[in-house]
Amino acid sequence: MSHIAPIPREAITDPEMIELIAQSEKLGMPDDLFPRIIARVRPSRQNL
Questions:
Q1: pTM over 0.85
Q2: Angle at Cα 13 formed by Cα 9 and Cα 16, nearest 5°?
Q3: Domain layout of the chain by residue ranges
Q4: Dihedral over Cα of 15, 17, 22, 23: its sign
Q5: What is the DSSP string of 22-47?
Q6: 48 has pLDDT over 50
């Protein structure tokens, strides 16, 4: 169980994150939880 809520997949607008999730699915990753958590943090990092 994660302590940081992942954002809904349809709310992800960053093309890099969308591609990461697509590649993960191709490789057989069990779920997209980690990229969806990172997608929540990523927009704030881009402002630095």
A1: no
A2: 95
A3: 9-46
A4: positive
A5: HHHHHHT-S-SHHHHHHHHHHHHHHT
A6: no
